[in-house]
Amino acid sequence: MPKRTLKVERLGRVEYAAGLEIQRQTERAVLTGAQTDTLLLLEHPHTLTLGRRAANGAIIAPDDVLKTRGVAVFETNRGGKVTYHGLGQIVGYPIIKLSPDREDVHRYVRDLEEVLIRALADFGVEAFRIQGLTGVHTSRGKVAAIGVHIARWVTTHGFALNVNTDLSYFNLIVACEGEPVTSMQELLGLEVEIGAVEDRIIERFAKVFEMEIDGDEVSTGSGSDLVAIEQRIQIGDL
User: Fold this and answer.
1) Which CATH number is 81's domain given?
2) Is there a catalytic annotation at residue 167?
């Protein structure tokens, strides 16, 4: 069986609501076959998202603190509880068909973890799974969160990897069952180049999911979600 093709889109900084719309349109295109399997890589401004399992009181900061720190809050249909997205973090939204040969939700989540574990190893970071928990962990805390949604075997949402993230924002929530969080910057003691990490994620994703990378990579990141969406529409990706 020939390998499937993976389209990669690096969108830069995108407001969370705009990211949801990009996912929605990409999901529809992938489902209908108008677009091949796609990996969206981007960065969100300061945002807290509540998954389907988020408990009351998961956000412990009062509204005025969230407003002062410029943090938006969204309820989502992904799995998981509450998490933080923000600057210095790589968010990955794989929009791929698991049908017909990968129709296994647990396998899909484990595969996402494997992608990140391998990408982190490329930078000398030893990461691992913890049985019974979702995400990627290190000896100093959780470095990546995973929360997915799957409908008609097409995936949305995905993962968030802390690269140069300001970890103080996690103090606004009860994150990861109370487990400490960390970042690549904290683990390595230096700022890490985001593009280099994205490169490794792309390569590892294609390897784990047995895909060929589309050579016509799209990069529309400009620091503006509106510009990113308009550019994607102009080049016919939606």
Assistant:
1) 3.30.930.10
2) no
| The model's pTM | 0.89
> Taking Cα atoms as reference points, which of 95, 30, 219 lies closest to residue 227?
219
Task: Say which of 90, 154, 176, 184 is annotated catalytic.
Answer: 176
77-91 confidence digits (pLDDT tens): 776 778 899 999 999
- What's the structural domain count of the chain? 1
